[in-house]
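Hypothesis: this fold can be encoded by more than one sequence.
Test: take the structure tokens below, design a sequence, compare later.
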């Protein structure tokens, strides 16, 4: 296979350097590694690169450099997208606007869905219901979601890994709501803007129980402060149970105690959105262009 025959996918890590360093100190996995792991399993022939786009010293791609990618993945971030006085935020929004004009297909989770909406003219605000953490429960496909290629193969109602405080509050023109739940109206979204298409979820198909347990452990004090747990010890007990189920996914006792089913444990179900994005927005256009 020639170099040009291999799809080029870049992962945009939206976390600033200080946050990534805190991940290392807190034994939290980096989301770009989770996406890279998926890509290595599903499209091992892909040329995968990572850019830390919140860092001022990172040179952002533009023009022909953007068009050299077959697909772009946006990770989460702990930045706040409506803080428009923060250049770490605004440089990412401006980059996404350029990507829409370049027509490179994007996928993103959490920060990604917010980026898709805001760069196309939508709005994001703090969720008045507070943090949605651990597992987003009862995500339901809309009528459009039932016909959507992004959610093709997903159950009608499912759960997903999640950790966020903000939500999309106004859809931009060209956006289609695909799924939501009681806590967060916009859980899955397609945005068509300019020449581009962005498929995005508020939840995280790239995570697994092990990675979410690590993240919950690192967020122990905020989860206590926000009233989800009585103490950090209770957070650690919950995270330990998640680790135990990760290591023993057939345990009926742990599944029942944590109220977790195959939509979380089975990567075939959990990662369906990522495979659909690769199949329909990354590989199929390459096949058409090669004819």
């Amino acid at each position: 296979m020639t170099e040009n025959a291999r799809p080029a996918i870049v992962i945009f890590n939206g976390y600033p350097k200080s946050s990534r360093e805190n991940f290392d100190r807190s034994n939290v996995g980096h989301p770009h590694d989770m996406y890279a792991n998926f890509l290595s399993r599903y499209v091992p022939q892909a040329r995968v690169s990572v850019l830390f786009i919140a860092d001022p010293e990172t040179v952002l791609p533009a023009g022909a450099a953007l068009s050299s990618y077959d697909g772009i993945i946006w990770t989460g971030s702990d930045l706040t997208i409506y803080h428009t006085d923060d250049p770490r935020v605004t440089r990412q929004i401006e980059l996404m606007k350029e990507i829409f004009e370049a027509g490179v297909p994007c996928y993103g989770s959490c920060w990604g869905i917010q980026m898709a909406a805001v760069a196309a003219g939508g709005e994001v605000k703090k969720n008045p219901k507070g943090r949605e953490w651990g597992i987003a429960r009862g995500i339901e496909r809309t009528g459009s979601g039932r016909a959507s290629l992004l959610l093709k193969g997903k159950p009608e109602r499912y759960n997903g890994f999640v950790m966020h405080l903000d939500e999309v509050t106004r859809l931009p023109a060209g956006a289609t709501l695909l799924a939501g739940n009681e806590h967060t109206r916009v859980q899955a979204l397609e945005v068509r803007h300019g020449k581009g298409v962005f498929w995005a979820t508020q939840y995280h198909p790239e995570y697994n129980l092990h990675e979410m347990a690590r993240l919950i452990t690192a967020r122990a004090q905020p989860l206590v402060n926000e009233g989800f747990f009585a103490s950090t010890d209770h957070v650690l007990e919950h995270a330990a149970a998640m680790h135990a189920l990760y290591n023993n996914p057939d345990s009926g006792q742990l599944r029942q105690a944590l109220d977790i089913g195959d939509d979380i444990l089975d990567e075939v179900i959990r990662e369906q959105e990522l495979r659909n994005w690769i199949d329909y927005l990354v590989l199929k256009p390459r096949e058409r262009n090669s004819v």
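The longest strand covers residues 132-141. The mean pLDDT is 95.
Hypothesis status: open.
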